[in-house]
Amino acid sequence: MFEGLKKAFASLSEKVKTTTLSEKEIEEELDNLFYRLVENDVAVEVAEEVLKVIKDELRKVRIPRFSDAADVVDSIIKKTIDGMVMDADIKEVLKRVGENMRRGKPTVFLFVGPNGSGKTTTVVKIANYLKKHGFSSIIACADTFRAGAIEQLKQLAERHGFWVVSQHYGADPAAVAVDAIRSAEANKIPVVLVDTAGRTEVDKALLQEMNKIKRVTQPDFVIYVGDSLVGNAAAEQALKFNEYVGVDYIVLAKLDADAKGGSALSIAKITGKPLLFIGIGQEISDLSDKPKEKILHALGLN
Ligand SMILES: Nc1nc2c(ncn2[C@@H]2O[C@H](COP(=O)(O)OP(=O)(O)OP(=O)(O)O)[C@@H](O)[C@H]2O)c(=O)[nH]1
Ligand SMILES: [Mg+2]
Q: How far, in Å, from the CA of 251 to the mean position of ligand 1?
């Protein structure tokens, strides 16, 4: 996870530690860092921002001893990343679920995102996470579009004992979601997780459908599930979805398989949306509610 980005940052602090660098050499090293960041999927504008912050910070500090230099650089890098990635307050989300439950209202999470990003897997992982925190859920299969989607979700969810509400292919996904909400109300189930079909910004009909699902279900939270493996495109895709449907939180899936790491930084910085979870594997428990901590750790910064 994130070996590319980790190496890029490590090589800067390594250089500063082992050689006396002139102002010009430092500039060159920062240029190198810029290219390495971009190579590792950091969007150009984000790489520029990272460089700017690091430069400013470097200028501010007077490094007392040569051997301390790497620590100083590490802490500057850490501070820079820290300022770019925002965690969601998961406790607030759980609190809302509890409050709604006391009022007899199920909390609705609507999951959206591009094709194959990890939505269905993430929905089941989150059902599991919520169960561990004392909340049962109903999963609505509002993907009535992709062949095999209903069977996939049912198989995955029912293997772990989660309740799935589904209809037939071609059914109105908004109606499936409403069905699930009614069942939750009738059975006092505190959470409804609505899994939807993958779509892209060129699928106009599917985008309208997504808006309809939102309008009809009035979700408490719209969660965008992004795929960290699509690299540079991840941030752009997330922005588009936010424009169309309005996104509250981001879950970034497949970080375990991402050898570069830049898309996590870019998506966080460019959208400015908090990361609710990250997906770190294909198993049901491979979900972390501490994205920033995990990212800093993968970069060797904590
Ligand atoms: N390594 C890894 N694989 C993941 C993760 N999350 C999902 N996947 C895999 O990614 C693939 C696609 O996952 P799905 O959950 O079906 O994605 P989706 O967004 O529902 O796909 P569509 O419904 O077709 O749009 C599957 O093979 C998952 O096992 C993750 O965090 N890590
Ligand atoms: Mg799916």
A: 12
